[in-house]
Write a structure and sequence with these properties.
Largest interface: A-B, 37 and 37 residues
Oligomer: homodimer
Largest sheet of chain A: 5 strands, mixed
Strand order of the largest sheet of chain A: 3-2-1-4-8
CATH topology of the largest domain in chain A: Nucleotidyltransferase, domain 5
Helix content of chain A: 25-40%
CATH superfamily of the largest domain in chain A: ATPase, nucleotide binding domain
Radius of gyration of chain A: 20 Å
Structural class of chain A: alpha/beta
Chain lengths: ~325, ~325
């Protein structure tokens, strides 16, 4: 059976620092069969990631024999066009030609992308109808999870800085703030990442929590420690957005990643802080991402489809 | 006489908040006949600026009868392509079609540009031979004078953010720092602009100075107040560059404007502070601009030449 590539499903994989998510993107753009497994670490990370990816593709193929391609997104510095993972210190790999290796293992066209850049691309695609000038907008997608990073778009084009752009999590927003794992102090992600919110609440209150969502619930139930930490997080986020507004002047800032599940409890205070902080800068519209923690998988799907399109040109 | 436009001189005008500079750019790219006059203010700023520009063009034409075009650069929000000055609060104008008006007054093709963006373009053109990938580099040109603003380039393309990008002077770098005219606190330009350096030294020491150069001289002669203020300025500048490195990751940062006259006394301490501040960010090379306070005039010349090229297509 010959299936037109544009109407065939693709396998998608998002390698995170902790978990690796997998799924299949159907021709209509929806995700199905989403799963997660601990990200392999240890001596042969690359081999183990390839094993995991190949096993997922084999399984996906049983349900979708017309699987047309595979898309993989990873953290670190990524050269999309060459299909190479240049560097990821937390994954301990360097200059890995993932696209070629994965294509070899699966017999399918394979695309490689950066996790945050791809997640941002997916959020922009899914919000395009609502953006001031469609995809041509100056937009920043801030992905807030364990850490914080941004995917930046200027007139609709991704702004990559050789893979180093968008490290918004390491913009200093509080000179006397917490020590950051990067070696800096008061980096945005030490105050406003989902991980930091949970960690700081436990340190402050002595209470264990499963994540930032539980801190927000506590704050809404009147817990003063939780309220203070949520307040500091949204204020720090507004400081980060103020920096973006001064430097890049995005028309739209999309808040994505796990923390976007907080909804208006996130966007409302961030918007109020912004109104106080912004002076000469253009005020961006603050939007919620629509894809949550699955944005990376959606991005991997977009890249895999593009790879198929390129192949048939 | 018919002169090929690419080899003809162009008149150039740089309207600043205080002074307006004028000159002629010769076919080999050098500036000649540079003059300065107080920028007209008052009830008919636009009319007065046009009078000044027309008088300059008339005078320049006497020396250069083959004058091919005129380039004008102004502060504020500028729509280059439409040739319109959209907004400049300190000039009190709004939506002025300067290119058309100037062309009408002079009978020459006229180009309009933003002062800092054009100055940055000129610095990049003049540094292109030394940039890692020529003009295609990710570059930031920080123009440090009365205030601070940056011209940003991503893969050689100007990043404008609808005219709002590059307001690096209003990135907060010191939460408890001086009040800024913009309404913010601790903005970069309250510590590191040439104007702020002179102002802060006078406030600290009670001594009047003609400008930042004199503060640097005092610091080099052992004046502790001057040394402290110069130190704070270079440290604040490094903080601003750290923000740029995290967000845009420029390969090269060119320090331009009047303060670039300080040479190594500026770049050396900024580089040392950067080495301490940068962690995960790509470290930009720090370069001195080559055009000083004339970068805006050079930029006006580039735009005027482009206008001529477009006209003969």
């Amino acid at each position: 059976m010959v299936t037109s590539p544009a109407t065939a499903p693709v396998a998608v994989i998002d390698v995170g620092g902790t978990d690796t998510k997998t799924g299949v993107m159907l021709p209509d753009g929806t995700l199905t069969g989403i799963g997660a497994a601990p990200t392999p670490h240890g001596t042969d990370v690359v081999g183990n990631v390839l094993d995991l990816a190949a096993a997922h593709v084999a399984q996906a193929r049983r349900a979708h024999p017309d699987l047309a391609a595979v898309g993989l997104v990873v953290p670190g510095i990524v050269d999309d066009e060459a299909g190479r993972a240049v560097l990821a210190s937390n994954m301990r790999w360097q200059d890995v030609p993932f696209a070629a290796l994965l294509s070899e293992r699966t017999g399918l066209p394979a695309a490689l992308g950066h996790d945050v850049a791809s997640a941002g691309l997916a959020e922009v695609e899914h919000s395009a109808a609502d953006l001031p000038r469609g995809r041509a907008t100056d937009t920043a997608v801030i992905v807030i999870g364990t850490g914080i990073a941004a995917a930046l778009f200027t007139e609709g084009r991704p702004l990559r800085g050789g893979g180093y752009a968008g490290e918004l999590g390491h913009v200093p927003v509080a000179p006397e703030g917490p020590q950051c794992a990067c070696g800096g102090r008061g980096c945005l992600e030490t105050l406003a990442s989902a991980g930091a919110i949970a960690r700081r609440y436990t340190a402050q209150s002595g209470q264990q929590v499963t994540g930032a969502a539980q801190v927000l619930q506590a704050a809404q139930a009147g817990d003063e420690d939780a309220a203070a930490i949520w307040h500091e997080a949204t204020e720090a986020l507004a400081r980060g957005i103020t920096v973006l507004a001064a430097v890049l002047a995005p028309q739209v800032v999309i808040l994505g990643g796990g923390l976007s599940g907080a909804g208006a409890a996130l966007t409302d205070p961030v918007g109020r802080h912004l109104d106080q902080m912004l002076t000469v800068q253009r005020r961006p519209q603050i939007r919620l991402g629509r894809l949550g923690t699955h944005a990376g998988l959606h991005g991997a799907g977009i890249l895999a489809r593009q790879r198929v399109q390129e192949g048939i040109r």
